[in-house]
Amino acid sequence: MPLTRRHLLGLGGLATAAGVLGLGACSRASTAAAENRPARQFPLMRTDAEWRRLLTPAQYAVLRQQATERAGSSPLDREHRQGTFTCAGCQQPLFSSSTKFESGTGWPSFWAPLHGAVGEDRDTTFGMLRVEAHCSRCGGHLGHVFNDGPRPTGLRYCMNGAALLFQPGAAQQDSNGGWRVPLGSSPTSGA
Fold first, then answer.
1. Residue 84 and residue 168: Cα distance in Å, rounded?
2. In this predicted model, what pLDDT tens digit does every residue of 102-112 receive, in sequence order?
3. Could you give the dihedral angle defined by the CA atoms of residues 9, 13, 14 and 20, in that order, rounded to the nearest 10 degrees?
């Protein structure tokens, strides 16, 4: 059977429909994962209605529903001033600008959080095993941690800019005199 223009247009339509349905399924899967997660307790707890009132739609989607912003969409990826990156949900200091690096991924990336500021959970959504990073104070989803970062930790905390705020000024330093390196990570792994 020869391939005609009609067949190509039909295949293009099917591909477009599959892409649209696939994107919808991904966003629903992320929301479903957030809803099916067991309730956890954090020092700062709010109702869903309070979070919706306090956060922008993008912040709510990322922090409370574990959404991921589009790569390259956050101005914080291009933020190079000295300062501290805080949680957009509760303003807890999370990362010092001194640990930020250009990962080329399109998301703000850091090689270490401030001590005790970021918690981690196992994330198995979309059939992958990843490490999810969340604010230790309010539980807001920040992004994911990967083992392909620079020295000294070898980690890349790949964060959604919508989950962060930037406070310019003197960068907050780790009060314990060192950066937190999670158990099971290798300081020599990564690029």
1. 6
2. 999 999 999 99
3. 160
Q: Which residue has the tokens 């090689």?
A: 111
How does DSSP assign 32-70, residue by residue? HHHHHSPP---SS---HHHHHHHS-HHHHHHHHH---PP
Residue 163 gets which letter from DSSP? G
Name residue, tokens 């807890």: 92
Catalytic residue among 87, 90, 138, 158: 158
Does the annotation count 90 as an active-site position? no
Helix 5-36 / helix 57-65 crossing angle, nearest 10 deg: 70
Reported pTM: 0.73
Residue 89 CB: number of other CB atoms within 10 A?
27
Comparing C-alpha atoms, which of 111, 110, 109, 129 is closest to residue 121?
A: 129
Cβ count near 26 (within 10 Å):
14
Quick one: which H or E segment has residue 165?
Answer: strand 164-168
CB atoms within 10 A of CB 120: 17
